[in-house]
Amino acid sequence: MARIVKPLSPVQIKNAKPKEKAYKLFDGGGLYLTVYPHGSKLWHMKVKQDNGKENILSFGKYPDVSLEQARKHREEARKLSAAGINPIQAKKAQQAASKERAENSFEVIARVWHEKRSSGDNHTKPWTLGYSQKVLSRLSRYVLPWIGGVPVSEIAAPDFRKVLLKIADHSSAEAIAIKTLCSQIMDYAVDMGLATGNTVPKMRDALQPPKVKHYAATTEPQQVAELLRAIDTYKGTFPVACALKIAPYVFVRPGELRAAQWADIDLEAAEWRYTVTKTDTQHIVPLARQVVAILKELHPLTGYGRYLFPSARTEERPMSDNAILAALRRLGIGKEEMTGHGFRAMARTILDEVLGVRPDLIEHQLAHAVRDPNGRAYNRTAHLPERKKMMQQWADYLDRLKAGADIISLSAYR
């Protein structure tokens, strides 16, 4: 005659104290709680195998697994047994499937892809450190919190669409960039046999490319002269003052100027060599005598560190994106008059229309993609002697404007 087991109660389980030896508290149907001498309490269930032998199925630790949850696990195991399925083998298969799902999650695949692209492989150049960090930051901020844990084989187009629309709410440009990253990750997953297709939707209607923004720029020589004289009156910190004075002479992108590093500056050769993040290409900026003089003044203050223009808060980072812009505003120069990017438009216009410099030399110095007649991209040293001459000519012209030389409006050249 089978022994009748009285079901356990939550209070009984909670109050069960450890003894010198492990003991069991039975709940019926093969389910029992083992109380160990060290105080742990684990749920187990006796399961008969196909050969008639008993084996033990574990459901987890109390109180992580409650009495109610343990009973649900018991019923599920009994249903499997009734259907001719071994519950222990089913659990092992489930654990293996869960492990495979975790190993093939979007986050895991994205990080493997990111590592390969950052370090470079047989088909691509390594990413710059700055761009690598930017990509990982975008994924970590906008994508991984939502679909990072989903296996790449299970992410459907609506899942990506939902994520991308959230991003597009505040920036369509960011959404388009992140869609491209997600598509590249899914292509990698397909290549690795982890997904059957790239499910990132096109979303041409929902994600409209942003309108091209033309940055405000002072291009009339008379206005340029006033701007340069205003810059000389700046009373802020010395590094920002130096950056503000150098900006018109070198006309690089604001992000490149603020992140300039002393290791890339050769004062003897009067050159600044660095990698353009936007195009991942090497670039050389010839430094006019005026720029070298400013840098020699700055070097005793920041030359011991990494950056020419470190942040006011920490020397481990360059000054903020808005440092130049804020300095211009402090000088009373409105956003409709000039921005950090505006120095590039100013140089391009006047070098071409006033000084008559060859357009290809200007484009080279702007670090734009310039190709030879055969369609090949020029290397960074192309026309370097001519560009050095141009940069000195440009610096001397700016100084003459600032000193009050006779100024002719651009309209006279058109």
Automatic annotation (TrEMBL):
GO terms for biological process: DNA integration; DNA recombination. Keywords: DNA integration, DNA recombination, DNA-binding. It comes from the Bacteria. Residues 213-396 form the Tyr recombinase domain. SUPFAM superfamilies: DNA breaking-rejoining enzymes. One of its GO terms (molecular function) is DNA binding. PANTHER family: PROPHAGE INTEGRASE (PTHR30629), PROPHAGE INTEGRASE INTS-RELATED (PTHR30629:SF2). Belongs to the 'phage' integrase family. This is Integrase arm-type DNA-binding domain-containing protein.
